[in-house]
Amino acid sequence: MGRDITLEAVLPHPVDAVWEALTDPAALADWLMPVEEFAPVVGQRFRFRAKPMPGWDGVVDCEVLAVEPLQRLVIRWQGSRMRRHTTVTWTLTPVQSGTRLRLDHVGFEGPLRFVLAAMHRSGWRKMTRRLAEHLHAKLAAR
User: Fold this and answer.
1) The model's pTM
2) Under 8 Å between Cβ of 23 and 73
3) Over the stretch 45-79, which tens digit does the pLDDT of each residue have?
4) Which residues pair with 98 in a beta bridge?
5) Residue 81 pLDDT more than 70?
6) What CATH fold (topology level) applies to the domain 5-141?
7) Would you list the domain boundaries of the chain?
8) Torsion-angle region of residue 66: left (phi > 0), alpha (psi -120 to 50) or beta?
9) Which of 52, 64, 91, 105 has the highest CB neighbour count under 10 A?
10) pLDDT at 14 over 60
């Protein structure tokens, strides 16, 4: 399915550090987007807010769908240009060199599905780099 997104990266950091970057609101705001009302609790509704740009108001409405501490976080994701929600899953696996992070973003539908998936794929690549930078800076500060 060309419209679903899967990205993987090996981060040279322990699972608990990567998990914290995915579940701490201040960390999320540092590498992903400012977040309102987030908690890693199933059923928690929250919102990301970014700088608006042409065709997007900067708002992503979300809900936590699943939490497996230190292993997996699943959220419902719906931006203003999306007719239906999509699902973002972060899966963490310890590896010898740190943590394998896998991101799956699935469920793009409708006439703009390929455009939306391409835009999100580009954004997730950028955000994964920013996550790596966030983790590196946090480690360097210790």
Assistant:
1) 0.92
2) yes
3) 999 998 888 878 889 999 999 999 999 999 999 88
4) 95
5) no
6) Alpha-D-Glucose-1,6-Bisphosphate; Chain A, domain 4 (3.30.530)
7) 5-141
8) beta
9) 105
10) yes
